[in-house]
Amino acid sequence: MARGQAGLGNRVSTVLARKLGAELLRLRDAAGLTQPQAAEALSATAAKIAKMERGWVPFRDPDVLVLARLYGLEDPKAVDGLLRLAKLDRERRRAKGWWQHSPSGGGLAEYIAMEDVASRVRSWQLSLVPGLFQTPAYVRSLAVGEGSWDDPNEIERVVEVRTRRQARLTDEVPLQVYAVIWEAALRQVVGGREVMRAQLERLQEVARLPNVRLQVLPFRSGGHPCMAGAFNIVSFAEEEAVDVVHVDTMVSTVWVENETEGAAYRTYFDRTSRLGLSPHDTLSLIDSLHKEM
């Protein structure tokens, strides 16, 4: 088990707690207050505030509310966002790091929160271009094809969220992405030939970024360890942080935040990636498919 995980119970630095702690630290700094001053408002010690800001302890709602008020946060939506993160973190801790089901909408929100603070993502996709690489037209076509959106404005919000996520690829400290895509995802004509042509062009662009490694698993590779389904492995810069595996199903999201199971997913990914085309040959295949379109 990873360092910082064994024998600590709730005293583990989790992804969501670190995100919430960082936001409270930002608010405290903006308010010009010190850790002892924040601690006095909670009748606690400065050491507790330090642990909260580093994500080492679960957050109680009353503590979050007191600190938000102390730091001058008056926007009800912003406060609700902090409380939601605290609740998700407590639920993850109660699940003892194994896995958690959540509605697909909430699962996506939680995944984006993790991706936002991640240092690396390894993505295996069977039938879709990874979200970080999708064009707006491709996203829109997927949403229309899903058939569950009654309001066109909702579809545009999906497009906007996906586009914002992609900013991580070109941040000052860019997200490292290693993606392996089954050939079927590139041959499936989502939204028509023009949409797919543009999508293939986008893949050619991102594949040349220094922080992106893209491989295609060709049909001829035959059976492989990842045939059961797609998943993402999200890694973090902190030494204590355990990888989080994100698996979407049709109606829910499964999370794995456990060193043993996470290691198994990493092994599956590595074995499958060794069957894939090299990055150079991947670009050649994408170019060939682009010309066919």
Task: Report on the architecture of this protein.
This protein folds into two domains: 15-94, lambda repressor-like DNA-binding domains (434 Repressor (Amino-terminal Domain)); 101-292, Endonuclease, Chain A, CATH 3.30.870.10. It has 293 residues and is of the alpha/beta class. Strand 5 (231-235) and strand 6 (244-248) form a beta hairpin. It has a seven-stranded mixed β-sheet, sandwiched between helices. The longest helix has 19 residues, at 76-94. The chain has helices at 15-31, 35-42, 46-53, 61-70, 76-94, 104-117, 136-146, 152-165, 183-187, 193-207, 259-273, 279-292, and strands at residues 101-103, 120-125, 176-182, 212-217, 231-235, 244-248, 252-256.
Structural class: alpha/beta
Strand order of the largest sheet: 1-7-6-5-2-3-4
* Assigned CATH class of the largest domain: Alpha Beta
State the domain count. 2
Mean pLDDT level: 86
Poorly predicted regions are 1-10, 96-104
- By CATH's scheme, which homologous superfamily of the largest domain applies? Endonuclease Chain A
Radius of gyration: 21 Å
- CATH architectural category of the largest domain: 2-Layer Sandwich
Helix and strand string, N-terminal first? HHHHHEHEHHEHHEEEEHH
What share of the residues does DSSP label as strand, in percent? Answer: 5-15%
Under CATH, the topology of the largest domain can be stated as Endonuclease, Chain A
- Beginning-to-end CA distance, first to last residue: 48 Å
